[in-house]
From TrEMBL:
Organism lineage: Bacteria, Bacillati, Bacillota, Bacilli, Bacillales
Family to which this protein belongs: Belongs to the peptidase M14 family.
UniProt cross-references to SMART domains, sorted A to Z: Zn_pept (SM00631)
Domain Peptidase M14: 41-369
Name assigned to this protein: M14 family zinc carboxypeptidase
Length: 402
């Protein structure tokens, strides 16, 4: 396993005299419900390193594993890569540490692609390069919560120019007198929603005028986790010219098929910012030549069709996640504006609320969708899909009290 050297950020400094942040409910994708269940049985940080090492060894060099960064508390962020093709697929899991199902699916795919002697797999790996970040927010994963472990004081040490800002960024989780937020206690270990720390300007430098910001504005790359993903993305751009596909694996609360009381198994989406060519997206005009919404829709349909082909059970309620979003601070929004086809996976339930009862089914659902995306990109069949069918997929709705 290769290991690159990175500067480890100093240990967590605590903020004093902090008030609760104004983090509004419904800031999608991935707003969690408050849950307090055990998530044992999923791959933890220590197990991940061992599993990746085993996959790398058994693949006889086909799968390459390396450390591409460190979390704020100094944990390694691993990258696993397989394939030698010109079409690049980047998959990220556990940007929220209590959303773990995607990690299991990614490990299963890496194991299969690394060990299979199938001619079809060999041909596929000659067409695509699959790059995965199976647990990109390991501090949050170990804490089994959404936010990372990082105080505003630590941000100011890294970016002293932000001393002039009016206060922390809007996505900062912290609490006073032990109060809880998003189901977790952030009083002793504040943190950030890393999936609001991205910016379509991949060379952006934090500016105090952009703080605190909002959910409909770009992020800042102030967390080492978001910086690592950005650096991986830029490195792939330098190597290949483009990252063709970016997939982000999440969990959601309990949602329903719109207009029904049928619970959703998995939601998909390819829309996170308005089209730069539209009136609503005019502020992203500089990215207009990069943005390819049709390709994002085709990728989502590849996953949707594969799940639908499994029959009515267990994947009978596959939906579109909330549409009409404007979230340039998410990895999906930022990378879509940089020209990647984007896919969001949102399986039902936060990890803590699931226990083990749905783990196998949900891992299988994510794995099925991911495999379909990889295969369709490798053989070019994704380009034959009518993107307008995306609009016919039923949408997701949240129905409290059902």
């Amino acid at each position: 396993m290769k290991k690159k050297l990175f500067t480890v950020v100093s240990t967590l400094a605590l903020c004093s005299s902090l008030a609760l942040p104004t983090y509004a409910a419904g800031n999608h994708p991935g707003t969690p419900e408050q849950q307090n269940y055990n998530s044992s049985g999923f791959t933890d940080y220590e197990q991940l390193g061992k599993k990746l090492e085993k996959i790398e060894q058994s693949s006889q060099g086909r799968v390459e594993v390396e450390v591409v960064g460190q979390s704020n508390n100094g944990r390694d962020i691993h990258q696993a890569r397989v394939g030698n093709g010109d079409r690049v697929i980047l998959i990220e899991s556990e940007i929220h540490g209590n959303e773990k199902t995607g990690t299991e699916a990614v490990l299963n795919i890496l194991k299969h692609l690394g060990s299979s002697s199938s001619p079809d797999v060999k041909a596929m790996l000659e067409e695509v390069t699959l790059v995965t970040l199976p647990k990109m927010n390991p501090d949050a994963s170990e804490l089994d919560r959404r936010g990372n472990a990082m105080s505003w004081d630590e941000v100011l040490r890294d970016f002293p120019q932000l001393e002039a800002a009016s206060g922390p960024t809007w996505n900062h989780y912290y609490s006073e007198n032990g109060a809880t937020l998003q189901g977790d206690d952030y009083s002793s270990q504040p943190g950030f929603d890393v999936n609001r720390d991205f910016n379509p300007d991949l060379d952006y430098t934090p500016n105090p005028e952009d703080v605190p910001g909002s959910s409909s504005e770009p992020g800042w790359y102030i967390t080492p986790e978001a910086q690592t993903v950005r650096d991986v993305y830029k490195g792939l751009e330098e190597e290949f010219g483009k990252v063709d596909v970016f997939v982000d694996l999440h969990h959601q609360g309990l949602y329903y098929v719109e207009g029904t009381s049928e619970p959703v198994t998995l939601s998909l989406s390819g829309q996170f910012v308005p089209d730069p060519s539209s009136e609503a997206g005019a502020k992203y005009e500089e990215y207009e030549d990069n943005y390819d919404y049709d390709f994002s829709r085709q990728l989502n349909l590849a996953a949707y069709d594969a799940l639908q082909s499994k029959g009515s059970s267990p994947f009978d309620n596959i939906t579109l996640y909330s549409q009409g979003l404007d979230l340039p601070g998410t990895a999906l929004g930022s990378f879509a504006l940089n020209g990647s086809g984007t896919v969001l996976f949102e399986v039902t339930g936060q990890t803590q609320s699931m226990g083990q009862k749905k783990k196998g089914m949900l891992v299988n659902a994510v794995e099925t969708g991911l495999q379909a995306i990889i295969e369709s990109v490798s053989d070019g069949s994704v380009n034959e899909i009518d993107p307008e069918r995306y609009e016919d997929i039923p949408e997701t709705t949240y129905q409290p009290g059902i």
